[in-house]
Write a structure and sequence with these properties.
alpha/beta; eleven-stranded parallel sheet; coiled coil; Adhesin YadA; signal; membrane
């Protein structure tokens, strides 16, 4: 709201200046002899000179935009055509004749053919100019709405905006310059006369053809293609949230900065920088990935292992982000189509517009869904987000988080060759402090002075001890890095800048050499391997030497199964030994003795053992055939191997014959077979004349015959001995049977009720009273709703009037302050007219005022004053002076004419000068006479 008031104040100041300038050349009525003023208006434009609705807006055209016939927000025709279009070509006494302003508001001014002003204190000057809601539009085809100001042909300003210059357009912004544009605008003039596409606001474009989309563009042809960008300089261009300073400076990536003429910033964020001592083996000191960078700078394990630890989560996180950006890009794409097709009269573009509206709605829904999915996922994966934040923090020193700052440019040909390089020095740079500060040359020199600049690597230097030897020559002009013995190797690349110190694949530690890992740890020397026992262990060290292994009381675990065969030297494990022990226990006697077991030829059996075998043989099992259907036979194959095995079989046919065949009769207990059941079913079908006789249990067939009101008919032919019958019932017979009872019942629609029946029902149910009660309640509810509606309207009107009163009070206060600042000059009898202008402010509202003062004499003054713009205030006054002071000084007839006095003084001065000259001349003559007299006296001796 404050911004709008500031714009209005700027407009008022401009008008005040305009009035002030023109007032200097305005002839008074007395001077010019005129009794009024005139407004001259030229010929009305033809249709070929006008851009109407549905026409592509071209700010450079000679045609003007016509806002007269449009539609309102509901699509209904809303005429803004003034009465007779002011074709009379003149006004009377300063009032524009024929222009029909908004009759429901005040303080509007419209001058020009088709000019229109409405909604309180709006001013439209020029052919087809339009000003709405406290706005000012000056120029042919100019439009200003919602407290905006536009000056120039075909200018457009909407919602607290300012446009200045032919074709300048702004929406909630500022556009100054021919063709300047601040915001986004439709390609075609809309049916309601609007041009702005309400997506990007608060832009500023200053300069001919400058374009600002949500940013600031200052300079001819400068542009910001996205929000938050700043482009300063002729033809400067900038992407999202970037800064370009200088002619032709160009920022091609988001958040980039280009400083200087023709500078280009095209290096994106998240770019990994040079890391000293981080050679990847290919001569590059720029790590290829975030994880490689983390390893190069010795970051935490979280950062180094991030890609592997959170591999699946990284994939999901990237998928969710890709889904959101895809939907957002689709919204932008459809927005662009809508902006360039809405309002078109071309059929193909109308179809494209309808499709884009649908596609945009879907894309917006997809974007919301993607955002919700991403938020929910990140909330559920706090470990991932915490690790990601930690990695970004640790790598931020060597990995950019925004676009690069460029003070020059490198351009390339289509095949990738460098065509030009623009470089600049950055001077007067202070010494950097933190890791991300820039350093100056002085700091680098300090580092260079502390660096050994001449280092040679070679294998020709003698090695006197194990290790890395660094030696210098006699003059101490260089330092040599050599390997000791053959265990350490040194090498340098062809460019003499990469020194590699390595360990030989074959180590010779000599007889006295050894390798020890940790305190009391493992030691490897010429005599063998010693593995130290842990501190506090009950076991001793493990010693492995040639021909000797001492486990020191330690257990050997995880030993594989050795081969247990004659001649095997494999080690066996506890499991194998246990199996052997178990086999022995299974065959052993008391206390594990084997003396109680029989030999294979039974030659060690005693009498008791022989008796057991004999008894068993005497009690052999006898197997014989049973009934005719059970057979037992000796298995000849088994008998050949000394085993008497008998097979038992069943004769199914003999068993069936033994059971016999039963019949389907009562008391028969013989076996029932399928043939028995089939014969029983066939006998039933064959012996029956109808299917109503089911079994032989029924003594008689079921007979069907026609009865009263029913008939019996055959509905199918005989098939497999079955016949189907249907029984029909007469509808009329049923109706006649129940008619007496139905006549006593009321139809659901009451069609068979007489008037007497209805009245009886009403009396019984009390309907009359209910209707009256309902009617009374309905009337009261209607009355109550009417009262509430009237009360709501009254409250709404009151609120509106209070709000309007508050605004008007602020404006009145500002106007009063402005009027109070008008003061006349001192009285001058030779120039009795004076003028004054002033500004006033009250609670954020501002006002400008002008006034005129006329003093016919020293004792009387007439004054007239008025504010400009909204809430116009004016006053007319006369001031009188009482007493003798004024008359004494300026009384007619005795008034000293200053000019005359000045002339008299001048004359007196001239006379005095003449007298002075005469006196001087006389003095000269007297001196001459005195000299002559002295000469005469001298001659006569006096």
């Amino acid at each position: 709201m404050k911004k709008g008031k500031n714009i209005k104040l700027a407009t008022k100041l401009a008008l005040a200046a305009l009035v002030g300038v023109t007032s200097l050349s305005v002839y008074t009525v007395d001077a010019a002899g005129l009794t009024g003023s005139y407004v001259g208006i030229g010929k009305e434009p033809t249709s070929t000179d006008v851009l109407d609705k549905g026409t592509e807006v071209n700010t450079a055209t000679d045609s003007i935009i016509d806002y007269r016939q449009t539609t309102n927000a509901q699509g209904a025709v809303f005429s803004r055509t003034p009465t007779n279009n002011n074709k009379n070509g003149e006004g009377v006494d300063g009032q524009s004749a024929g222009n029909k302003n908004d009759t429901n508001s005040t303080g509007n001014t419209a001058i020009g053919i088709g000019a229109y002003s409405a909604r309180n204190y709006s001013t439209a000057i020029g052919t087809y100019a339009e000003a709405i809601t406290g706005s000012t539009a000056v120029g042919s085809g100019a439009y200003a709405g919602d407290k905006s100001s536009s000056f120039g042909k075909n200018t457009y300003a909407k919602t607290n905006a300012v446009s200045l210059g032919n074709g300048a357009r702004s929406s909630q912004g500022v556009a100054i310059g021919s063709g300047a544009s601040a915001g986004l605008f439709y390609k075609y003039l809309q049916s309601d006369g609007s041009q702005n596409y309400n997506v990007i606001n608060y832009s500023m474009a200053i300069g001919n053809d400058a374009t600002a989309v949500g940013g600031i563009a200052i300079g001819a042809n400068s542009s910001t293609s996205s929000v938050y960008g700043v482009a300063l300089g002729q033809s400067a261009k900038v992407a999202y949230s970037g800064v370009a300073l200088g002619t032709d400076a160009n920022v091609k990536v988001s958040t980039g900065v280009a400083l200087g003429t023709s500078s280009i910033a095209d290096r994106r964020s998240n770019t990994i920088g040079y890391v000293p001592f981080a050679d990847d083996g290919n001569g590059s000191y720029v790590p290829a990935s975030a994880e490689a960078l983390a390893g190069a700078i010795s970051a935490s394990d979280v950062s180094k292992d991030f890609a592997t630890t959170y591999a699946s989560q990284i994939t999901k996180f990237n998928e969710l982000n890709a889904a959101y950006y895809a939907a957002a890009d689709e919204v932008d794409k459809q927005d662009e189509i809508i902006r360039n097709t809405k309002g078109s009269t071309i059929a193909s573009e109308q179809e494209a517009y309808a499709a884009a509206v649908t596609a945009k709605a879907k894309a917006q829904a997809d974007a919301v869904a993607a955002t919700n999915a991403l938020n929910a996922w990140t909330k559920a994966n706090q470990d991932f987000t915490a690790a990601l934040g930690q990695q970004r923090t640790e790598l931020g020193v060597f990995k950019s988080t925004g676009g690069a700052v460029s003070v020059g440019a490198t351009t390339y040909s289509s095949d990738g060759r460098v065509t030009s390089i623009l470089t600049r020095q950055i001077t007067s740079v202070a010494a950097g402090t933190t890791d991300t500060d820039a350093v100056n040359v002085a700091q680098l020199k300090r580092v260079a002075n502390a660096t050994i600049s001449n280092i040679t690597v070679g294998a020709d230097k003698a090695s006197t001890a194990d290790g890395l030897a660094i030696t210098s020559d006699a003059d101490k002009t260089r330092i040599d890095i050599v390997g000791a013995n053959d265990n350490i190797t040194t090498s340098v690349d062809a460019d003499k800048r990469l020194i590699q110190v390595g360990l030989s694949n074959t180590l010779d530690l000599s007889d006295a050499g050894s390798i020890t890992f940790g305190e009391n740890g493992t030691t490897l020397n010429n005599s063998g391997l010693t593995i130290g026992a842990p501190s506090g262990s009950k076991t001793s060290n493990i010693i492995i030497q040639s021909g000797n292994v001492n486990m020191g009381g330690n257990i050997i675990k995880n030993v594989g199964n050795g081969s247990v065969v004659e001649g095997s030297t494999d080690a066996v494990n506890g499991g194998q030994l246990y199996d052997v022990q178990k086999q022995i226990n299974d065959i052993a006697g008391e206390n594990g003795s084997l003396s109680q077991k029989a030999n294979t030829n039974l030659d060690n059996l005693n009498e008791a053992g022989k008796k057991v075998i004999t008894d068993a043989a005497q009690k052999a099992v006898t197997v014989k055939n049973g009934d005719n259907f059970i057979k037992v036979g000796l298995n000849e194959e088994q008998q050949k191997s000394g085993v008497n095995q008998y097979d038992v079989s069943l004769d199914k046919d003999a068993l069936r014959d033994a059971l016999g065949t039963g019949t389907n009769t009562a008391g028969d207990k013989n076996l029932i077979t399928g043939d028995t059941l089939n014969q029983a079913i066939n006998s039933v079908v064959t012996g029956q004349a109808s299917d109503t006789h089911i079994t032989n249990v029924a003594k008689e067939n079921i007979k069907l015959a026609d009865g009263n009101n029913t008939t019996v008919r055959t509905v199918s032919d005989v098939k497999d001995g079955a016949i189907t019958y249907a029984v029909d019932v007469s509808d009329d017979a049923i109706k006649n049977a129940v008619k007496p009872e139905l006549d006593q019942k009321a139809n659901i629609d009451g069609s068979n009720l007489s008037t007497e029946n209805i009245n009886n029902w009403k009396n019984t149910l009390g309907v009359t009273n209910v209707n009256q009660s309902v009617t009374e309640v309905t009337n009261r509810v209607d009355s109550l709703e009417t009262n509430v509606s009237n009360l709501n309207d009254s409250v709404s009107n009151l609120n509106g009037r209070v709000n309007s009163l508050n605004d008007r009070v602020d404006k009145v206060g500002a106007g009063a302050a402005a009027l109070a600042g008008l003061h006349p000059l001192e009285f001058n009898p030779q120039d009795k007219f004076s003028a004054a202008a002033s500004l006033g402010s009250y609670k954020g509202d501002s006002a400008a005022a002008i006034g005129a003062f006329y003093r016919p004499n020293a004792d009387t003054m007439f004054s007239v004053a008025s504010t400009l713009g909204d809430e116009t205030m004016f006053n007319v006054g006369v001031s009188l002076k009482f007493g003798q002071k004024g008359d004494a000084i300026y009384r007619t007839g005795t008034t000293v004419d200053v000019s005359g006095l000045q002339n008299e003084v001048s004359d007196l001065k001239a006379q005095n000068k003449g007298l002075a000259d005469t006196v001087a001349q006389q003095q000269t003559e007297l001196e001459q006479q005195r000299a002559l007299i002295q000469q005469l006296m001298a001659k006569v001796g006096m």
